[in-house]
Design a protein that fits this description.
Layout lengths: L7 E3 L4 E6 L1 H4 L2 H16 L3 E6 H6 L1 H18 L5
Parallel strand pairs: 2-3
Antiparallel strand pairs: 1-2
Length: about 80
């Protein structure tokens, strides 16, 4: 079953990075939907990390560095990076 789509999905390490914008992630019902989806993914062994879309736009270099660090850390934890 497909749970949904992620903005950045790293299948091998079961990592989803979501870029949350005001248009689709700010209302209480949006947040409730996101929480349910995140919990479904967590129960299947996925890690979901949410970042503000406005932060990403304002800090693109820091965003890329953060994603690289998160991916590398997750790979190390899973024994995929030495």
């Amino acid at each position: 079953d497909r749970i949904g789509y992620g903005d950045l999905v790293f299948t091998e390490i079961r990592l989803v990075i979501e870029l949350d914008g005001l248009a689709t992630h700010s209302s209480p019902s949006d947040k409730a939907r996101d929480t349910v989806r995140d919990l479904r993914l967590a129960r299947l062994g996925w890690e979901v990390i949410r970042m503000s879309g406005s932060w990403v736009t304002a800090n693109p270099e820091e965003f890329v560095a953060a994603v690289r660090d998160i991916v590398r850390t997750r790979q190390v934890r899973q024994g995929l990076w030495t």
